[in-house]
Amino acid sequence: MRGAKSAKWVAGAAIIALAATACGGNDKDSDSGMNSGKADPNGILTAQLGEPQNPLQPANAKESQGSRVLRTIFSGLVDYEPGTGKLTYVNAESVTPNADSSVWTVKLKPGWKFHDGTTVTSKSFVDSWNWSANVKNNQTNSSWFQDIKGYEDVHPAKGKPKADKMSGLKIVDDNTFTISLTGPVSYFAYKLGYDVWAPLPESFFKDPAAAGQKPIGNGPYKFVSWDHKKLIKVRKFDGYQGPNKAKNGGIDFKNYTTADAAYSDLRSNNLDWIEQIPTTSLTSYKQDLGDRAIDAEYSAVQSIVPAFYTDQFKDINPKVIQGLSMAIDRDTITKTVLHGTRTPADSFVARGVLGYKPGALGDIVKYNPAEAKKLIKDGGGVPGNKISIQFNADQSHKPWVDAVCNSIRKATGVECVGDSKPDFQADLNARDNKQVKSMYRGGWVLDYPVNSNFMRDLYGTTAAGNTSGYSNKEFDALAAKADKAKTLDETVKMYQDAEQLLKNDMPAIPLWFYKNNSGQSTNVFGKIVYGQDGDPIFTDVQVKAKK
Amino acid sequence: MGRYVARRLLQMIPVFIGTTLIIFLMVHILPGDPIRAMWGDKAADPAQVASLRHEFGLDQPLWKQYVDYMGNLFQGDFGKTFGGREVIDEMSESFPVTLRLTAVAMLIEIIVGIGLGAWAGLRAGKAADTGVLIFTLIVISIPVFVLGFLARFVLADQLGWVAPNVQDSTDYAQLFLPGFVLAMLSMAYVARLTRTTFAENLRADYMRTAMAKGLPRRRIVGVHLLRNSLIPVVTFLGTDIGGFIGGAVVTEGIFNVQGVGNLLFKALQQREGSTIVGVVTVFVLVILVINLLVDLLYAVLDPRIRYA
Amino acid sequence: MPDVTETKTEAAVDAVAAPSAADAQSKDKPRSLWGDAWFDLRHRPMFWISSILLVLLLVIAAFPGLFTGANPRDGDLTNHFLTKPELGHLFQADWFGYDGQGRSIYARVVYGTRASIMVGVGVTAAVTLVGGLLGMLAGYFGGWLDSVISRVTDIFFGIPFLLGAMVVLNAFTDRKVYVVILALAFLGWTSICRVMRASVITAKQADYVTAARALGAGTPRILFRHVLPNALAPTIVVATIALGGYISAEATLSFLGLGLGEPTISWGIDIAQGSQDIRDNPHALLFPAGMLSLTVFAFIMLGDAVRDALDPKLR
């Protein structure tokens, strides 16, 4: 799956890239010496990392690897509480909306320092956002600032920017500034938890390219060195003022090209944390690692999406899609073919996201061959009586695609084959150019933990994430109303109603939610806890003192 | 001889231009937009895509991109990756790694391959010969990646004789396993080739003469037989160096080696034209020079061959 | 090939290679090179072993249904997830166990034969035809034709396997067998071309060619009667060894995600999938890999036998 932060490139054996949120380690520690001994506050942790694709600039990490490093070096205004997804303040003292949530006032905790000794002020944030949003600075995440007034001036759809500042950002004093939005967004504060909203020191703007190789931030760790494709070193920042002070001495991010290589290093304790257990070891890693194995869900969903621009699905009766959904034996497939790395989906919205409603899709995601056959028959059948599922072969999608097809074929008699594209770019290209023949693999990792992100941004007629050509005016109207609601609670509630509407229309067939399957070495003291972004909370990881 | 070398060097020019042009076109033909793909499954911002495309010159017509690229190349500028790094830096990191791996593989191939082949060739038709023949057949019959998985499973995981992965590419002990797997297939070919030429040349007139003269067997085998038998083997080894560098994709991927194969594989997936053409350019130059050296060596080994 | 002048063909320059002429009984008639080879082949056990193996494989490829009643595509996840082999159950569906999708590995091995054999034979035929022809022309005529063909060979040699395969395979929407054949042939013809060129150059300098030319034989006659038969042996050796290599290459393409598309069943796809389960369920890898190796083995063994028969110096 590739999401906002998961465009990850892996050689040889493909790995399921991960990003986004996890619910944290909920296993109660039994025994295995994980909690014996003493923690060393200056112990160095080694963690797995692929080579970041872009320079280490806050708004330029479109993939999980660069983001993982950036989040240790920079601290944002807010963060999410692991498990609940609630907002917590980090560099901000408060972030408060006006009556209709269109103007937000940010107060900073005073006295914070960058790693170079300069002070973090309102200007550090405002300058950073203005620079990142500017189209000519080529930051891949620049569109994150589009809610702010004056965004079109620095980021016009065509041509050169007219200004280098967004009019919506106003500095009140050194520790206060306001953000005016183009309209009300009740959950704007939630968006502020993403990497792109980090502050930048004066020195950055003198040479942004050099700063991308040697970033200076305000976070719990200061950057030490980047030996390309080998090692990135960060060390504890002693002057850090935030609530998430590092409980270890620093992190060595080691580069691996294969999950197998990382896993064998983990087992020989040359690596303390692995990102994903290799497919070859998924059946045995829990025996290998005991309670050092990590198995936690995170907020991402995988689905198969009908291409509504094809003759096959143009005028399809939604009952047929519901029937196909009921022909998929999610329970068995996740347990066998997927080795328990996913859990069956019961909603369009991933678990752990605000507004997720258990069982929202009811029977439609329950395996029922008889009902499946009946629904497809009632809906007039699948045109051509044959579907294909497009996927990219450079990641391990083939096993589940085969299994889903097998399940559909056996339950309904509808012929189903996998349509493999050699790599992600070829797959994406076919989707962007509307060349998908029948259905395609879809995936969505949360951008921010509110249910609107899993619906409006995917199924809205004009939503940029809508590549299937799906359009439902009723849904569009409901979504527009929900976004303008006064409070976050109302927004969430209205989207829950919208989900029921989608259930009848089936813009996609949700399959399962993702899980983190990883592990830790014996050097780690206690169990590693995961954050909302699907990565460990590195600051909380403790390293055992050497005997 | 001098004129021959000059002619060969001149012939390299069209090959060089032809290869870079074809690779350039091929990368262009591949479906996918490298800039758009930076956004992954998420929607890309068209304005930012356009700006980035301009930054990397991808908004220019293809012929201009090629001319610009070649122009820069002659000034030693291989261009930049989409991540903003110099391609030359990436290559100078990965080429030495692959060269070390190739050296290990070459060494294994020469020692084991020629050794086995000579041993079998001298005993043509006997049990040892049949044993070597069947062994090489089995090696050739197994796909390289299966061999890689099996070798690691047995030699590293089960027996613990060698390191399963390469963490430090300057450590030759760690490079042994990938080098061994990379060498296996060619080693089988070399063994077969050596065996055949040995067996053939054993019956040659000059061998009969040497034997009739009463030369010691060691001298016959070591000087007369070896020198004449190694000509096709040397040719094979020469072309094989290119095969190693190119064929390292699978091996490097399996064993976590950060070499050219890995660089090329990732560049291909990202449609990073500058890296792909850069790597292939250097690769082609290396092959051409090696081919020339092999042909010159040929003349040294076989006095019947003369280059005018 | 340094020295080919001693061949017996000199005495029988124009003898027709009819099987009857090759009959060992008719001692009074001179035998051609090929007749000689056939006579020799019939006395080699390696030839018979590999031939029988290959005939069996061809029958399996042509009529897979004769060998198993199990369906190679439909699996049953609930009952058969990676069931271990039951080696005692000869020719039953669970003989080789079940794969990750709960499909009979035996059935898949049987049905996968066709694709692999077709890829191997198809690529070899295409490569020998194109590469052999170009190599022959380059070697025999020399001059500018040789220069052009040699330079093109050099260029193709520089194209990375992966890039070439991706370009060709992407050009077609359905990755059927013929597409994979095309891709592998596109990348593989250069080696045969080089071998053929080298042996033609050696063969055309031979005394019997000069003799034939002196007797007034035309170019096509010299080329096909005298040069080709004597230059063919190394090409056949390389081609038969390469045939096995092409079958492996198809598996490697599958491993890299570029192989045959659904619903074709091939060993390559199964090996690639099986390699993901090597630690706990090696049988999912070993049976298709074993069959593939056996097939490659049979082809190379046949190539060896033919080669020895064609090369009188080894007799």
TrEMBL record, chain B:
InterPro entries: BPD_transp_1_N (IPR045621), MetI-like (IPR000515), MetI-like_sf (IPR035906)
Membrane-topology annotation of the record: Multi-pass membrane protein
The organism of origin for this protein: Streptomyces sanglieri
Compartment annotation: Cell membrane
Residue ranges of domain ABC transmembrane type-1 in the record: 95-298
Listed SUPFAM superfamilies: MetI-like
Protein name: ABC transporter permease
UniProt cross-references to PANTHER family, sorted A to Z: DIPEPTIDE TRANSPORT SYSTEM PERMEASE PROTEIN DPPB-RELATED (PTHR43163), DIPEPTIDE-TRANSPORT INTEGRAL MEMBRANE PROTEIN ABC TRANSPORTER DPPB-RELATED (PTHR43163:SF7)
